[in-house]
Amino acid sequence: MTVAGYVHDQDGAYSSFPNKRYLVAFDGATDPTTVRARLPDDASIRVASLLT
Fold first, then answer.
1. pLDDT per residue as tens digits for the range 20-43
2. What is the value of pTM for the model shown?
3. Are 44 and 36 in contact (CB under 8 A)?
């Protein structure tokens, strides 16, 4: 089973562009570098964290 968490950034807290979605956790990993490494190479998914 894969567990993923995402944030719908309505207010632009993750960037200056509101209403974007960001993957923030993937199978327990929350570090953006670790999350990106677990995604397919062609994934056009935004990965972000406010913790780092």
1. 999 999 999 999 999 999 998 877
2. 0.76
3. no
The residue count of the chain comes to 52
Identify each DSSP E strand in the chain by its residue range: 4-9, 20-26
| Per-residue DSSP letter, 12 | -
Residue found under tokens 């929350």: 30
- Sequence-separated contacts (24+) of 15-24 with Cβ below 8 Å: 15/48, 20/46, 21/46, 22/46, 22/47, 22/48, 23/47, 23/48, 24/48, 24/49
